[in-house]
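Quick one, tokens below:
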């Protein structure tokens, strides 16, 4: 078990819709294997999860969920199902009703992974295509960055539903094809069926190694906009404090500074506190972590004469999560700078990921089915008395790229931020800094990344 201050780029919280219990029915599911065995395995998993929640969940009131009653209903529902995908959906639905960004069921893993050849993100309340993989079926079907996704299957896309659908199609029940309704930049609507592709375990390993190498080689990128203004794209807080020191040395004596945390899913607590220490000439209280049995205050220690004292702004979007959200909110609360962009993810919890297993059969002849549970063990309360969970950080100035901006790779958010600092730069020129980069579809499982190095 590892204590985490998580990357949760897609876990936005919303009112619970019983999506998984119903099933998406994008494609028909026929395989049921052994229905009796499937049911018993599901019931055993459900019992293990319930016991862990009783022992470890940070809120003894379980965020308003009647634990015994809800798990009893889930058990009865599982007895009516036959296929594994139906049973796993039932288990997932129970945890979704906690309305908690970090409490999640990870079904028995697959060696291979399904990809659809494109990535999505919400901007405001709408979902957009942000990237299309070369030579994918999505590209062959004419899908392009900037296309608005109106629905996947029969489910409309908005800020509250996209993460739920992604959770379904990537983890719970990968689909051989997705039926999309899209609207292009001219306002024309059409339906598209995109065939998926299976990525083997070896391919996944190579992709993961490539991402780790890229993250190590370039953990941030700074660009001088003019003699006074510098902008830095900070990709992840899952780096050592020395990386922050190096970046801030690059910022140096510039009088104005834009820190771009768009797409930054969080990372180490220690790195977040260290970066905050560069913007205050005294130690500041960041938040109070509330766990089931105790509270802990988090403090950022000032770097004294190394503190950056110039004009400052922070960029965020719907994929800015965890440590990024805490950083941006502290800057707001302490009135140290302005926050520009879109509402952040609202995914700020400390959690444990637990590797579990369902074991059946006589000793020496057991069948072991591994699965996982991510369980929240703490919530952060900011100095204004509020939690960022669900709510996220509301920017001081709400600015987001349009579908057209995505299609031509311009960056109106960076352009707007520069103008707030008194520097005129066109959206097209801002796009040439390549700060507005889409997340890769072949992202690693968030439960295996970015340990909270305190």
């Amino acid at each position: 078990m590892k204590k985490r201050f998580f990357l949760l780029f897609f876990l936005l919280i919303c009112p619970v819709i019983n999506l998984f219990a119903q099933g998406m029915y994008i494609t028909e599911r026929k395989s049921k294997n052994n229905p009796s065995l499937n049911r018993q395995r599901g019931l055993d998993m459900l019992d293990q999860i319930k016991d862990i929640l009783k022992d470890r969940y940070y809120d003894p009131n379980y965020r308003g969920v009647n634990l015994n009653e809800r798990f009893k209903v889930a058990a009865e529902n599982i007895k009516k199902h036959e296929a594994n995908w139906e049973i796993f959906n039932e288990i997932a639905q129970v945890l979704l009703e906690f309305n908690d960004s970090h409490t999640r069921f990870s079904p028995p893993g697959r060696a291979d992974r399904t990809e659809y050849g494109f990535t999505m993100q919400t901007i405001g309340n709408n979902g957009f295509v942000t990237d299309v993989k070369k030579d994918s079926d999505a590209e062959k079907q004419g899908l392009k960055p900037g296309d608005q996704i109106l629905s996947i299957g029969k489910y409309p896309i908005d800020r509250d539903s996209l993460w739920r659908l992604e959770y379904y199609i990537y983890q719970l029940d990968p689909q051989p094809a997705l039926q999309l309704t899209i609207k292009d930049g001219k306002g024309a609507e059409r339906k598209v069926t995109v065939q998926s592709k299976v990525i083997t375990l070896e391919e996944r390993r190579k992709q993961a190694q490539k991402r780790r190498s890229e993250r190590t080689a370039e953990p941030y990128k700074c660009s001088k906009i003019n003699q006074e203004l510098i902008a830095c794209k900070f990709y992840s807080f899952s780096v050592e404090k020395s990386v922050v020191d190096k970046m801030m040395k690059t910022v140096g004596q510039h009088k104005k500074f834009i820190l771009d945390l768009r797409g930054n899913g969080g990372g180490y607590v220690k790195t977040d506190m260290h970066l905050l220490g560069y913007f205050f000439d005294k130690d500041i209280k960041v938040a109070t972590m509330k766990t089931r049995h105790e509270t802990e205050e988090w403090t950022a220690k000032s770097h004294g004469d190394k503190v950056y004292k110039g004009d400052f702004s922070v960029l965020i979007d719907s994929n800015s999560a965890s440590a990024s959200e805490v950083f941006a909110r502290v800057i707001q609360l302490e009135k140290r700078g302005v926050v520009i962009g879109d509402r952040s993810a609202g995914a700020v919890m400390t959690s444990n990921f637990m590797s579990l297993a369902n074991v059946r059969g006589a000793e020496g002849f057991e069948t072991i089915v591994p699965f996982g549970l991510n369980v929240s063990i703490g919530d952060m309360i900011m100095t204004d008395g509020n939690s960022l969970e669900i709510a996220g950080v509301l920017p001081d100035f709400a600015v987001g790229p349009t579908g057209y901006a995505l299609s031509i790779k311009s960056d109106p958010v960076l352009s707007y931020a520069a103008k707030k600092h008194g520097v005129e730069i066109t959206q097209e020129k801002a796009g040439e800094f390549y700060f507005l980069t889409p997340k890769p579809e072949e992202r690693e499982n968030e439960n295996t990344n970015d340990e909270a190095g305190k």
